[in-house]
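Subject — a protein and its fold
Encoding — discrete vocabulary of local shapes:
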Amino acid sequence: MTQPIQVGIIFGGKSPEHEVSLASARNVVEAMDRKTYTPVLIGISKEGKWLLCNTVPETLNGKAHQHIVILPESNGKILNIETGVTETSLDVAFPVLHGQLGEDGTMQGLLKIANIPFVGAGVLGSAVGMDKDVMKRLLREAGIPVARFLTVTRETVPTHRKVADTLGTPFFLKPSRLGSSVGIHKVCGEEDFKKGLQEAFLYDTKVILEEFVQGREIECSVLGNKNPRASVLGEIISQHEFYSYQAKYVDKQGAVLEIPAKLPQGLARDIQNMAIRVFQTLSCEGLGRVDMFLKENGEILVNEINTIPGFTSISMYPKLWEASGISYASLIDQLIQLALERFAQEKTLKTSY
């Protein structure tokens, strides 16, 4: 009998999105087919400790779990730091990490050095997808429409008047390399601007200023490596001023998710094709959720891509695939198989000349 594949579910992390990651990981573990896969639960505390867990806890407490490490070229071996003993090993990793030090290419680089296959985009796609400034510039270069934006650092912050003259009022302000709507502000005046900058610079050294786009918020899930496919579309109808962290994760009535989105067939197909273009332009693999705005005149503007989208009970990525005919368990299976397929292809490449 074939042994189940050991899947390292990596969650938590040193990120403001730590709690969202825990919720996503619980759902991924629950959906996995135990006949095919054995989950190995690896939690990363807010202090950066790697911990071997029996379940996905409500709070990661280093005292309650074994302190572990993955070594370069270890082929998946998990070592106990205190004893030096191999506790278990991984056949493939499934990072369920949102935000910095997880979704930005750093975790992906570590897993590549450790010679472990992993779910999702590689180093480049992850890094580009996380950095909204670089992402938007690459999309613009590829002729993919994005909203007008400015990028600032602490040293280059313009006056509120100059931003308003360029982008109009109101405009949005957000950390460049963060997700889950953490640190986002809708700026209507100079005081909003000062307050928003103060908070955003707590999370990042680079801040994005974007024009306000009046339009419907449409999302599309993408799945695949070389030949990605797009899900049916979903629409987020926020019950708050905008789709904030509060609306996403705290207020259960914070938003209505309309799946599938009510759109003409031709327009829906155009949006799906654009989502695939975004995915490929940014060198993504495995999975991604592309968020877009649909203006009243039919113009489509790309907002961003999430290379490790949420897997919580209310998250769009799995919901859109479920509406497209792929169950949660089948989705997890396909993502793992895509990771193994890519790893096998990369193993055929030469490493000497």
